[in-house]
Amino acid sequence: MGPLLIALVTLLVIGLLVSGPFITERRRRKIRARPFPPAWRAILERRVPYVHRLPADLRRQLEQHIQVFIAEKPFIGCDGQEIDDEVRVTIAAQACLLILNRKPDYFPKLSQVLVYPGAFIVERVRAEPSGILQEERNALSGESWSNGQVVLSWDDTLQGAAVDNDGRNVVIHEFAHQLDQQKGHANGAPYLGNRDRYPRWSQVLSYEFAMLQQRSMSGEPPVLLSYYGATNPAEFFAVASEVFFEQPAAMATLHPALYDELRQLYRVDPVAW
């Protein structure tokens, strides 16, 4: 390959890398400019009462994000689950709460959303301390995989949307994991936008995580944060995200530093809604 040809190929590759994001954003702007379908708005009114809390500007932003999300992310029904607009809009609305007022990259590593009618069985092999491998079968309501898939139970999705003040929402939980996994693995430290923010984030979330673990081992009943969040830092972040959106006033009162860190991350203040 001659020098001229190499230079031309290099310029072509650079051009593709530079123009790719521009073309993607131009396409997304066109989608966001479309009128929000009245049938979709009726689904929001019926299935996602949370949207009634949102100020008008955030609600419009959410509708625009829903349009892009549905245009870009394939939904796949599993075990007989049918996929229709009811499924797409209900899931997309809850997922897109997490990207309001943020750079709308729409969970770039997410390639598909798998939906089961109810809890689905996951088989795993767990190593015992003795070294023996133990097979486990668990019924789950949701999972987020770092290879680009979110798996959801439709029954649990509907329940999480319908009861919007109990601090439990499987879609928010799993898509918080997606934010955490954008860097390749989940460890409870999603991209914060500025590296200077990580020391404070680590200090606050490590302390809150340790306190939740301590309380879970004491045998006392949980207060606000589910003990599932004591499993590891990634689960703590996902559980805290559920509570941030669904029980913001309680979190701001009982865990003000944690609430402030999540407020800065998500760039919204649900207490004010």
Automatic annotation (TrEMBL):
What Gene3D superfamilies does the entry give? Collagenase (Catalytic Domain) (3.40.390.10), Glucose-regulated metallo-peptidase M90, N-terminal domain (1.10.472.150)
Q: Which domain of life is it from?
A: Bacteria
| GO MF annotations, alphabetized | aminopeptidase activity; metallopeptidase activity
Q: Name one GO cellular component term.
A: cytosol
Which InterPro entries does the annotation name? MetalloPept_cat_dom_sf (IPR024079), MtfA_fam (IPR010384), MtfA_N (IPR042252)
The identity of this protein, by name, is: Protein MtfA
Biological source species = Usitatibacter rugosus
Tell me the name of the encoding gene. mtfA_2
